[in-house]
Amino acid sequence: MRMVYTNENRFLVANARNLLELQGVEVILKNEFASSVIGEVSAFDAWVEVWVLNDDDYEKSCSLIENSLSKEDDEEWRCSRCKEVNDASFELCWNCNEPVPV
Ligand SMILES: [Zn+2]
Question: What is the Å distance from ligand 1's center to 12 Cα?
């Protein structure tokens, strides 16, 4: 099991997880519920981490995430359900989990 991604922005972390799950990669999140204990742990420890269960998926997962993040210059998109604006790298609406409109 290896960590493939972590960020202080948990929307980005959730996006990375969604991205990998859409590709059939088995992942788990660590520290997902750590925000409730901020103050007892350092801010860095509370970052949510994405881990792949199979080491064989590690390199594929890293490049998937890199490709997704490199799309950051693309245009933002607006959710068709809740009308929130999402970063181009998001595969699902950060607010309601609606997929990117096609
Ligand atoms: Zn939405």
Answer: 15
